[in-house]
Design goal:
The structure is a homotetramer. Chain A is mainly α. Chain A is 77% helix and 0% strand. The first copy, chain A, contains 9 helices and no strands. Chains in contact: A-B, A-D, B-C, C-D. The A-B interface holds A 1-2, 5, 8-9, 12-13, 15-17, 20, 23-24, 72, 75-76, 79, 82-83, 86-87, 89-90, 93-94, 97-98, 101-104, 106-107 and B 7-8, 11-12, 14-16, 18-20, 22-23, 25, 27-33, 35-36, 47, 50, 54, 57-58, 61, 65, 179, 182.
Chain lengths: 195, 195, 195, 195
């Protein structure tokens, strides 16, 4: 199995996911600016999901970058990740349409959590295939970010049914964790991990 | 005709098919968790079809891997396969929305069967083009899996109108056939085939 | 401008066009086989358009195969072709939903005709860029097929409003022209062209 | 980060955007030619957006052409551009459906303006990464086109609420600016820029 085709297929699926999410933002029938107001939550949930899919695409590239051979298990671990990502448009649409209500927010958190777990599984599969001197293992260390993210999503799922703003804060925090000054933090924490 | 562009185009079509299937899972209007209950059959049919499309993508890659030159007939055999795969979203949506009722289940089986036949035709076309020492021929043998799958789908189509659970069992069995411990079984059966 | 990216982009657009056409075949609400009957014309129009898009994809590859440098004008000639191809889902859906009625059939013919003209323009642009010894020019000759097709579509547009079966026959004839035993006919006609 | 995958992903997203815009042109229910009349504004807005997305795809290629290494910031600047482009189908659909009414036209202008700003940011990011002798910097100069476009879109947003034809004229002017005789104008202006 060549890496090129796995990347091309994943890129295709991720490109479609990121683009069809916008279809949940239905064109309003009236022609006044006020018609856009009820769409604001849908728009915000779209922005959030766009950033998340962007993060996944970015990280996915790094994962595969260190990878030379693609095994059958990797392929299915990758499809498993794409499966949960493919539920983003549904979860995003439901959350946006219902103005971040309890149940849709919890579902959104659950989908994010499953995607994060699928990502960790894919990472684990690649590391195992690379063996002892895995370059990926060396560069991600214990991958505290991935673990903290899963915990944040779990927190979000539980909190959503009661205080949905906690869930929203967890979503934004986890996204920022992946977006903000990567190198320095990661380097330092990488050193901590190694000691 | 370069193989690269055939692969890229097929990847594109398969990536879109796998992703637009999720659009059949319409966002519910209410905001309570219970709203998701009627979507469960749609979700299950989506999971099944996602796995099937994943299997086809995987196998499609193996088919083309051994292939160096792409002839005009191969190209149309490939488009023929993509045609039947493109009906998956329709068949999946109809089956899911109607909770695995008789006729939609039969149609789903028929589409799976046609895709399996189209796949066998593509395989045959490539083997013929490769001639006597076809590497593909050597690695798939008589391809009992492909044949058993077609029979299972045929069984499903017939059974669906009476006992749709038999059809569902056939779908899952055929999927597992392609998913589970490939190497050992295939090697042994490959040896049987050669004797 | 590298040819690779032009091909990749065109493949992407064509892959999406061929796949979203199937979305015009709406999942019926009931669960009986009879529900599929009113979809038959939509299905037939889908099959026809699938074959046409397949032909365009195939020919598009041959066009670019001989091409080394991509100029700015080629790029826009290519986007012009993609524009008319992007109207296929709309024209197909309208024709299918209205059971091949007069006006939708005429529109379908008009879109086919515009796509054929756009294709001829792209071919012309590439030939001009290649200059005197254009390989493309040598292999397509005067491209009688392209010219006959445009005439067939024109005939279809005119006939559609009166006898829509003539239009349908013209669509099928033009498709067969591109599908059936290419080499021998083309070789012979190529010789005729050269004399 | 390899440039290839960034290009492939961007191509995928842009190919999907350009194609799903056509889905806003809903198939009419009747079968007479007159049914197409109310779709004319939607069609015109589709043509305009198709040209714009084509221009962006074209320019995007030129931007990345000079680029060898892809940094993390470039990647996010690129996703930021894709984000605004992904709103084209929504803005196009709203403007078309409401026959170029004031508010939808203003929104369309705002989305175009944000995309133009995102494009300028991406250009700036690449130039900064390339350092002093940036080839991109040398070829775009002060990029007067990009600046004039942003001003035209800003004008369109303001004018739209009063005289929406001014906005429409601004959209067409900015598109022509990018389409028409590039080389000579650019060369001359390039010389002016350098003096």
């Amino acid at each position: 199995m060549s890496k090129g085709r796995l990347e091309a297929f994943s890129d295709g699926v991720i490109a479609i996911i990121i683009t069809i999410m916008v279809l949940e933002m239905k064109v309003p029938h009236g022609d006044r600016l006020e018609e856009l107001v009820p769409l604001i939550p849908t728009f915000l949930s779209y922005v959030l999901s766009f950033v998340y899919v962007g993060i996944y695409w970015n990280n996915h590239h790094h994962l595969l970058h260190t990878c030379k051979v693609v095994t059958g298990i990797m392929l299915w671990a990758n499809l498993h990740l794409l499966f949960w990502l493919s539920l983003f448009p549904f979860a995003t649409g439901w959350m946006g349409e219902n103005h971040f209500a309890a149940a849709p927010t919890a579902l959104y958190g659950a989908v994010l959590m499953m995607a994060a777990i699928a990502y960790a599984l894919l990472e684990h599969t690649i590391i195992r295939a690379q063996g002892q001197d895995s370059i990926l293992k060396q560069s991600v260390g214990r991958d505290w970010k991935a673990k903290v993210s899963v915990l944040l999503y779990l927190l979000a799922v539980i909190a959503a049914l009661r205080w949905s703003w906690i869930a929203d804060a967890a979503f934004v925090t986890a996204a920022l964790l992946w977006l903000i000054p990567d190198r320095r933090i990661e380097k330092r924490l990488g050193q901590l991990n190694e000691t």
